[in-house]
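Dock coenzyme A; give full complex structure.
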Amino acid sequence: MGRAVGILGLGSALPEQILTNRDIEQMVDTTDEWIVARTGIRERRRADENTATSDLATLAAERALADANLAASDLDLIIVGTVTPDMFFPSTACLVQSNLGATRAAAFDLEAACSGFLYGLTVAQQFVSSGFYQYVLVIGAETLTKITDWTDRNTCVLFGDGAGAAVLGPVSQGRGILANRLGADGNGGYLLHMPGGGSRMPVNQEVLDQRLHYIKMAGNEVFKFAVRTMANTALAALADCGLNKDSVRMLIPHQANRRIIDAVSRKLGLAAEQVMINVDRTGNTSAASIPLALDEAYRNGCFADDDVLVLVGFGGGLTWGASVIRWGV
Ligand SMILES: CC(C)(COP(=O)(O)OP(=O)(O)OC[C@H]1O[C@@H](n2cnc3c(N)ncnc32)[C@H](O)[C@@H]1OP(=O)(O)O)[C@@H](O)C(=O)NCCC(=O)NCCS
């Protein structure tokens, strides 16, 4: 058993532009009613052409550092979970390190799609728990609207942009991260992917013509996987630290679809006020979704010191994860 590790500060950032369902009605054959009924999403944020993932990540990070009462120069490591890096390299984490002036920090990106923040949290915990590092910044940041096919009604109604950040460091024994669970099933990778633009299919005219540089998804299959995996993973993580669903003050689920969240909440027997939901205003922001939701719940005073939170998510890869946190430092 290493040191207890917890969240010392939180921050988030959303681009200003709001894209409503009515706006999307102008782009593809869909309706506000269909989108609300099938997904619970009413609007999402969209980054403008001058805003990249590192810009939102930097803003969220500055807010998290201020909340933790720490300076950028205190950071030992920056991890950015994203599938929409500014570019292949340098990593978005290195761009954020430069923006912040975090001169002592190592920096790398981590790609686990919508599970990216939970993967980042778990990796960061190992560094702090072992004593190797003191302060690690974990960011989930995305500009998914830039890899969204705005002619595909199956996907374009779902996604949005944003960033959320957490500063991790040592906390009192008994508080902080109590358990983490991570999983992956690469056999399902084809269910949710962006096939073009990488080394398998470098960008060329054919890739562009076939729109392979955009998100492709088998929505129905992903839906079933999500409901099954999220509930099981949350319960397994709770069992890992000797707790059960009655111990949970609040669930902070990945915000992909209101119906998925409701199904998971039912399986866990949680009341409406115990489940953080902002998908109606953010859409699915992939790696940014859990830290955005956590930051909003934190700012709204939805939980207090010593409350038990369960963060749970799933995403492309396929990947999934859950963290159980006893709040407080
Ligand atoms: C995408 C999703 C909302 C679709 O909802 P669904 O209830 O599964 O709907 P289906 O895929 O069965 O499609 C039903 C019909 O609606 C149509 N449809 C799809 N998108 C539509 C849209 N935006 N507007 C209107 N109709 C639409 C389909 O073409 C289909 O029509 P058909 O029956 O004539 O073929 C849902 O499957 C989902 O949320 N899946 C998970 C996706 C996800 O979370 N991805 C990110 C993971 S991190």
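Observed: Residues 30, 34-35, 38-39, 114, 153-154, 157, 192, 217, 219-220, 222-223, 226, 256-257, 284, 315 surround coenzyme A (CB under 6 Å).
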